[in-house]
Amino acid sequence: MPGVLGLPTDVQTRPGVYEGYEVYFGCENDAYRDLSVVFVGGIGIAEFSQFGNNVPYPLSEGERKFWLLSAAERVVAKVSSIHPADGVPPCRTDGWAIGFDINDYRKVDVAIRRLGLWLARENLKGEVALRVRADRSDSQPLRNRGTNPKGN
Fold it and tell me: Which of 34, 40, 44, 126 to pair with 70, CA 20 to 30 A apart?
């Protein structure tokens, strides 16, 4: 894949349930049809803060918390090849998931482990999508544009 370092075979993490989180590869959701994506799902009880369909500006409290959580997760991942977060459609949950672009297959295992352990420690329930694709660090994060994550 142009602009992506390493190979899919560099990812050694296996899908399954780990202590406090789960890992799954790919998704049937059309939003991920042509992407190489890994999901790290928190299986705790504290759901990610969410934001609604017609978010007033300045940011609602729910959206502010969502973006603070996504910023914290980016720091936790502590991987140089990870790029700005955005709100993305979920795969197996409801509401919004947190999405990161990562452009190096060799860093995916580290990001999975760090995010998974953090989700477990914080007892969080929600999904983080690691989309493996070329560096898009110059792009603006996607924002809620008046539709829910299912596209309605």
Answer: 34
Strand duo 36-43 + 21-25: pairing: antiparallel
pLDDT digits 0-9 by tens, 106-136: 999 999 998 999 889 889 898 999 999 886 5
CA dist 115 and 21 (Å) reads: 9
Measure the CA–CA gap between 152 and 131, rounded to whole angstroms: 23
Give me 75's structure tokens: 């720091």
Instruction: Name the pLDDT band for 139 (thresholds 50, 70, 90).
Output: very low
pTM here?
Answer: 0.75
d(CA 41, CA 29): 16
Cα-based distances in Å from 123 to 39, 95, 114, 120: 17, 17, 14, 5
Alpha helices in the chain (DSSP H): 61-77, 108-121
State both tokens at 105: 């297959």
